[in-house]
Structure formats: C-alpha cells, structure tokens
C-alpha cells in the first residue's frame, strides 16, 4: 500500500477540504430542491390552470368543477379553465392528467371511477390508480338516492325488499350504464338485502328517468342531483339515501343503512394533480380550495344540484381514497362485471 502523500505547506488539510466540499454540495442540493420548490410555490400560478373533467359538460362533476374553477380563479389571480375530456369510463381524461407535467397547472376533478373503481373492472389499465395522482382535496360528496315511481305501490325500503323477495327476478333496477355508480349501488343493495332484481343499463341517468317515472323499471339508486327535480315534483318517490345520515335536501328520507346496516356507497369528487407535483404547490391549491368550499354562495350553488362541499388536506384526501378503495371493490364484486360487456 502506498504511503499517504504529505499535505503541502500552506494548503488546507483534508478535513477542511471535505468540509468545504460538503458545504458546497449541501448548498447546491438545497438550492436545487429545497429552496426552489417553495419559491416556485410562492410564485404559483404564473400561467393558466386547467381542471380536466372526465365527463361531458352539464353533469354533476362538471357543475362542481365550474363552481370551484370560478372561485379559484379569483383567489389565485390566474385563469382557471374547465376542460371536458370524456370517454373510457373516465380513463381518457384521467390519463391525460396522470401523464401531464408535474407542475400543478393540470388538475383532475374525478369521481370514484377515476381514482378507485376502474382498476377492478379493466384488466389492463393505462395507469395505476393508486399511484398516478397527488390528492389535493375532497371537493364534494353527493349521496345516491333510492327512488321508485308512486305507481309501483312501494312506499319504503322494507316494502321494496319484501316485494323483491316475494317475486325473485321480477323487479328491475335502472342504471346510467354498466359499471356506473348506480349499477354498483344497485348490485350492492341486492347482495346485502339478499334479493334478486334485474339490472337494466341505460346510456346515462337522463335516459332512465322517463322509464322510472312510467314504472317500466322498478327502482334505481342514483345520484341525487339529477333525480331531485323529479322527487320534488312528486313524479318519483325517495325511499332512502346512501349516506350514513339524512341529507339536507331530503331531511325526512332515511339512510338505506337504517334497514341494511353497513350500506354506504355515495359518489364524490376529488381534485388531484399528477403524482410528483411539488408538495408545496399541492398544499397551496388545497388550502385555497378549502377556503372556496366554505363560501356561502358556493355551498348554496353546490347543494342546489345535490352536492355537499367538503374540503380536506392532501393527507386527509389520500386517506379517504384509501378507505373508498375497499368499499367500491366490494360493490364491483357484487356487480359481477365482465370486461367483455364493454366491447
């Protein structure tokens, strides 16, 4: 082994050099990551923000997104636009955000299908729902409501179950399509109630309503917003809600869980950024969203179409998605969906 080379006079000893080098490297690391990200967050936003809605315009998620975008724009001082990218059971819009730049300028406001459900339906997902997004906020929840036409003579949840058990395979339930939340909600209801009713899929809730009112299909468990006007007009009878407690718009309608303990399957909207977006940017958008969701006019607007504003930190939203994963997986299993149904 070679002998150590003596340090020349007048030069720093090796420990000092190492300390200098370490300090320089540490400084560069801080400048390259720790300091630049907060500075970027402090400057955010510097360009327009897009909120992608993976549904056509006019639906519940789209309405929620537009209310949120309008107020976020005022709060952030930069243009916030809503872009509709429907198709693929929300996979098209969700993939566009999952693969977007990780800078906070492209966000997704999606539903259970976007974040947890589709992985249990499609054998080859274009992205990993568990890891593709950085959750920002639970924007809103909107319960499903169990409705039937007054002409059916069914006046309660217990009446429906009793009738279905007396006539297996005769009653029908409508949905907005295969794997729609209304399909899964009805399948889970069948399983938990121990009944056999026939699923009738439509191309959206709006197409099923007329047959429900006419009594051509017996019931549905679908989003409250689109059904609320028909409940208020008396054309449909609300028997139960899918939330754990009665909802403000239907205070006298009991939870389905009051008859089927443990039944809970409500829809919701979560705002998320691509995974890897700087945490400081995610937290900034989350904080501003939380403020927006407590504004009285925002609450009034969202409740008018059946949504309840919520809010929540990124950590709380991530925990919420984790808990919902188990709930919706059980509903998909109850529905016994065949991927061939989508071809």
TrEMBL record:
CDD domains: PBP2_Bug27 (cd13578). Belongs to the UPF0065 (bug) family. This is ABC transporter substrate-binding protein. It comes from Rhodoplanes roseus.
């Amino acid at each position: 082994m070679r002998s150590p080379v003596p340090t020349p006079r007048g030069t720093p000893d090796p420990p000092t050099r190492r300390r200098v080098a370490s300090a320089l490297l540490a400084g560069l690391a801080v400048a390259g990551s720790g300091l630049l990200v907060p500075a970027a967050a402090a400057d955010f936003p510097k360009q327009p923000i897009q909120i992608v809605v993976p549904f056509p315009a006019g639906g519940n998620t789209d309405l929620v997104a537009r209310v949120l975008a309008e107020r976020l724009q005022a709060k952030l001082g930069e243009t916030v636009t809503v872009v509709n990218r429907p198709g693929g059971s929300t996979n098209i819009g969700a993939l566009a955000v999952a693969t977007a730049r990780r800078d906070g300028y492209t966000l997704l406001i999606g539903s259970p299908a976007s974040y947890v459900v589709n992985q249990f339906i499609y054998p080859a997902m274009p992205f990993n729902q568990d890891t593709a997004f950085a959750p920002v906020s639970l924007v809103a929840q909107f319960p499903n409501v169990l409705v039937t036409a007054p002409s059916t003579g069914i006046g309660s949840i217990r009446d429906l179950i009793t009738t279905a058990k007396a006539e297996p395979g005769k009653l029908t339930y409508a949905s907005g399509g295969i794997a729609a939340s209304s399909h899964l909600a009805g399948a889970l209801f069948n399983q938990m109630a121990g009944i056999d009713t026939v699923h009738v899929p439509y191309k959206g809730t709006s197409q099923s309503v007329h047959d429900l009112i006419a009594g051509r299909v017996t019931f549905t468990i679908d989003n409250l917003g689109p059904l609320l006007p028909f409940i208020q007009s008396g054309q449909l009878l609300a028997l139960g809600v899918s939330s754990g407690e009665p909802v403000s718009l239907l205070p006298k309608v009991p939870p389905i869980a009051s008859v089927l303990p443990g039944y809970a399957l409500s829809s919701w909207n979560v705002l998320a950024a691509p995974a890897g977006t700087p945490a400081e940017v995610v937290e900034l958008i989350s904080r501003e969203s939380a403020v927006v969701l407590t504004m009285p006019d925002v609450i009034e607007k969202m409740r008018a179409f059946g949504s309840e504003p919520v809010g929540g930190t990124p950590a709380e939203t991530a925990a919420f998605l984790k808990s919902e994963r188990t709930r919706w997986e059980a509903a998909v299993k109850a529905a016994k969906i065949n991927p061939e149904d989508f071809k």
